[in-house]
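Box S2. Input/output pair 1.
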Amino acid sequence: MRALRALIASIICCGGAVTAAAAAETLRGPVTNLPLPRFVSLKAAEGNVRRGPSLEHRIDWVFRHRDMPLRVTAEFEHWRRVEDSEGQGGWIYYTLLSGARTVMFEVDRTAMRVQPDPAARVVAEAEAGVIGWLGECNPGWCRISAGGEKGWVAKEALWGVAPDEIRE
């Protein structure tokens, strides 16, 4: 009897884990039906970040960098809860966001290479905080355009792209 209970508990436990994993993979925003979390960029030169999803909520701070990458973590009507590379965030009105993808270099003197290979020739280096436009990505590298240069950058040096993200 004890073995049967253990087997049932194991099935329930594992079945629950599989269901939770499947749910995590397919989490969608209730307004847009787009994946959550997902990355976007700040369309405007300034964007008020509020404590809650309405104009009545207090402004906690203002994002002041056009094209800044942000992660959308929730949706409510015309509002999106976002966070920046440091995890700071709040609610922002959806028209201040763009689906155009950007990334931020997180490591000083990050090499941009001619090919997605650590031994490939370096075409430029970027300082931490530089924002670039996201192009195609393979499992470990993304093609980035920044400061008039284009090159491949290791994903681990970027914020604004998921580690498992593939883009063509």
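Box S3. Input/output pair 2.
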Amino acid sequence: MAAAGAGGGAGDQLTVLGAWASPFLVRVRLALHLKALEYEYVEVDLKDKSDLLLAFNPVHKKVPVLLHGGKPVCESMLIVQYLDDAFPGYGPAFLPADPHDRAVARFWAAYVDDKLLSSWVGIFATTTEDEKTEAVDRTLAALDALEGAFRECSGGKGWFGGDGVGYVDIALGGFVPAMNASEPTTGLKILDPARTPLLAAWKDRFCALDAAKAAMPPTERLLESGKKRQAELQAAAQSNK
């Protein structure tokens, strides 16, 4: 697939290895679309990992992987930083120029993965109601912290990056499709306007972005995939009893 282009030489060629439902892939595709960079997308079957993936990410054997002129860059947020460095002048700069502001952005982007993601995944991995309640409480506490971070980082504007989409917006935005798809099955509204009004409004702005629409997988397909995965987990739990 291609967005409006950057450069035409073979050394400028961009290829993304990914799995369609991956929130980490959403981050990379979002960053590429925001910078209007052309790229080829290659779908990877994570149950039968291709030689291509194993060759370019032999350490973690995970997606996404960005190939730039045949050279690999792994891990979604490292790819986002790489695009900032490798393509100055294309689209917005995702990380701020001020060193302290850059450090703050990196801190909150890491918080999304270290605290929010780990707690949220726990909701689906639990086997008892008490465990689920605990995971929900941790998730909501992480969202409360991110609500405060948004208030501080945005300076009253529409994005964590202020006037435009920045590094933390991309980190959190990768999970928006999965959040939307999870609500019917969990009954938990992840970004509730009553609890996190700033983040709820942020999500509406995010979903309205053309770059986000191009990067996000269909909610209906994610919902069906989630139901299938949940059924598999329940069947496995029953067989282990």
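Caption for Box S3: The two ends are 46 Å apart (CA to CA). Residues 1-10 have pLDDT under 50 and may be disordered.
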